[in-house]
Design brief:
37% helix, 26% strand, RNA-binding
RNA sequence: CGGGGCGUAGCGCAGCCUGGUAGCGCAACUGCUUUGGGAGCAGUGGGCCGGGGGUUCAAAUCCUCUCGCCCCGACCA
């Protein structure tokens, strides 16, 4: 085949998403979110509407993570959205970190304005402004101070699922929105060692969530001082490499030492009879994780849902014609759905009036892990046809319903394993170890496949390297645990 | 908040330079034929051309202000 013919053939391959990842990764991302019907922009700048399919994914994430959190002995609770301004001011570094992105509530009543419409009533100004929580360390610390009297009250392990608000300059669906959903855990301990161990343990909970449910293979490590959470002693992070080679901070866990205990007054009478400040941790994972999932697993035909958190694991597509067979096909599909549901599979039937190919592409764009097609012939034979999203049409297989019901779980596991392996192999293939600043610079200037440079931590003292980093938006992502703090990843980030 | 780009039908775009009553593709709706990897024919509906103010007999088009979106930075999960 000539080059011209090859080009012509390539042009004929129609991808469901335009542009492709290679053509324009950021726009590809936006298109996938839209095509999969996950979320859209709202009338409120920087805030998003999460549509049912996107929220369904968040519910699966919540379920998986909530189970893991509770397995660690943490209890769920709920603290207020509004935080007194004075609380936020309590921890000095915390103030510096969050002050510039806080939304503030100053009034409690509206009235008719001079030009019609409603305005905040000047007579209804709050004595103390209230801050919409950017995070809840201070208000939870306030409660903890009341609840902790004795070392016997420790550890105190709390989590809340909620929304928070940070007034961001630049927002992107899921990856950064001014309001987002997350869980924030807040634990208090008697000793520094316990808090340190807890911060590390909760990070490992996130790591396992990503590997076991998201089919992602992120890096774990400690943040350098400049990337640390405001007010933390140590910040640990899940860094995941996206398909464009950029890093996404996918969850964090902080050892807050006694900083917040001191500013919030979390103190207790110890075994020695003396008064001590508690040692606290906080740890969070947000709807941003959904953006990471999309940029890790998506392809040019849309999303690929990891089976264990896919809101719909199996989509049944009845292939009906305009004849009397349609009712039988739908009934057959419903019977299969019931059998799958009985063994714990999240299954849905596409009963829309779309034509078969359109239903198929809709399922592909949404990343449904397994598609099942049933038509008239198969009703007769007691069979079905199934296709894996990750492998595409080549994986199309015909079998009996009984065979499928018996093997569907292992097929979903196979999909998970394949997706995990792809994510793992990709991210590891894009780590380049550099021993000098010159090597690192050479790497970033010549690579066509962006990734992380792994350099000795000692190089962070190199002024030239830091200038280069700053000029090129290269940040320290983490000091991976696997190198025991001797090395640091440097790369671009979301 | 800086630099760049863009706002015209649900989505994607043309028209703007050189003012003259709004167009294309897809989607939607109706009918018939179709239906296992993106169907065909025929017909129909849908737009304060992002918003305000100007210039003009006349503005999607020119001027001005504003709002929003996207990208690259700064800031951050």
């Amino acid at each position: 085949m000539s080059n011209a013919q090859q080009a012509a053939k390539a042009a004929q391959v129609r991808t469901a998403i335009t542009p492709t990842r290679e053509d324009n990764f950021p726009e590809w991302y936006q298109s996938v979110v839209k095509a999969a019907d996950m979320a859209e922009n709202s009338p409120v700048r920087g805030a998003m509407v999460i549509k049912p399919y996107g929220y369904g994914l968040w519910e699966q994430i919540q379920r998986a993570l909530d189970d893991k959190i509770k397995d660690e002995g943490v209890q769920n609770a709920y603290f207020p959205l509004l935080i007194p301004l004075s609380f936020i001011s309590r921890e000095a570094e915390h103030v510096d970190g969050f002050a510039k992105e806080c939304a503030v509530v100053t009034h409690h009543r509206l009235e008719k304005g001079p030009e019609g419409g409603l305005v905040p009533s000047p007579d209804a100004q709050l004595e103390e402004p209230l801050v919409i929580r950017p995070t809840s360390e201070t208000i939870i610390g306030d409660s903890m101070a009341k609840w902790v009297q004795s070392y016997r009250d420790l550890p105190l392990l709390l989590n809340q699922w909620c929304n928070v608000m940070r007034w961001e300059m630049r927002t992107r669906l899921f990856l950064r929105t001014s309001e987002f959903l997350w869980q924030e855990g807040h634990n208090a301990f008697e000793t520094a060692e316990q808090a340190e161990a807890d911060a590390r343990k909760m990070l490992d909970v996130y790591r396992s969530l990503y590997t076991d449910f998201f089919a992602m293979s992120p890096f774990t490590g400690e943040k350098t001082a400049d990337e640390r959470f405001p007010g933390a002693v140590h910040t640990y992070t899940i860094e995941s490499m996206m398909q464009d080679g950029k890093s996404l901070q996918a969850a964090t866990s902080h050892n807050l030492g006694q900083n917040f205990a001191k500013s919030c007054g979390i103190k207790f009478q110890g075994r020695d009879g003396n008064e001590h400040f508690a040692h606290t941790t906080s740890w969070g994972l947000s709807t941003r994780s959904i953006g990471g999932l999309i940029m890790t697993h998506g392809d040019d035909d849309g999303l690929k849902m990891p089976p264990r958190i896919a809101p719909i694991q199996v989509m049944i597509l009845p292939i009906t014609k305009n004849d009397d067979g349609a009712a039988a096909v739908i009934e057959y599909a419903q019977k299969i759905a019931a059998e799958l549901k009985a063994i714990g599979i999240r299954v849905s039937i596409d009963l829309s009036e779309q034509r078969a190919p359109d239903k198929m592409w809709s399922a592909i764009k949404k990343g449904i892990p397994l598609r099942v097609e049933v038509g008239g012939r198969e009703v007769e034979e007691g069979k079905l046809t199934h296709t894996r999203r990750d492998l595409g049409r080549d994986s199309k297989t015909s079998c009996t319903v009984a065979e499928f019901v018996g093997s569907v779980k292992s097929i979903l596991d196979d999909i998970h394993d394949a997706m995990f392996k792809a994510s793992h192999d990709f991210s590891r293939s894009r780590i380049v170890e550099c021993q000098t600043a010159a090597q690192m610079q050479e790497y970033f200037e010549t690579t066509k496949e962006l990734g992380f440079a792994k350099v000795p931590v000692s190089l962070l003292a190199d002024d030239a390297l830091n200038t280069y980093r700053k000029e090129n938006a290269l940040t320290t992502r983490c000091m991976p645990f696997e190198d025991e703090g001797r090395m640091v990843f440097i790369g671009k980030a979301y």
